[in-house]
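Posting for a labmate who doesn't have an account.
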Amino acid sequence: MNDQEIKEYANKPLRTFTVKYPAERTVTLTIRDNSSKMGLLENIFAQFNHGSMQECDYLLSNKMRSLSVHDFVKVDGEWFQCASVGWIPVTEEYVHEIEGAVTDCPEFEKLGAWKALQDLMWLTRRQIKQLSLCQK
């Protein structure tokens, strides 16, 4: 980095974010970043994804799985759930509810948190779809 790049980096605000892999791991880190909230979420996604060529040292040195659909990230005090495309704002209560449901899932002990989370979210989407069909 040259002097100008160092100065620009030092002027970026410190922002704390949390990555939550439900019933598996929670990571809280602080970085210098002045992008929008959605921009920061996309940066976090890239830094916590193997193969992005932007992986952060924490991901690599702790042998973590990639951030994936249904995992959560907290930025500027707000929680978001990773969707197939983009992010869905959610409440902290929802995050805790999903984490509790994952640990209660029969697959949790057998197959682990990630598989239990995927199964839980698939069932939840199916129930919502059935409810909407019943209301028509």
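Reply:
Got it, the structure tokens are right above this. Residues 128-136 have pLDDT under 50 and may be disordered.
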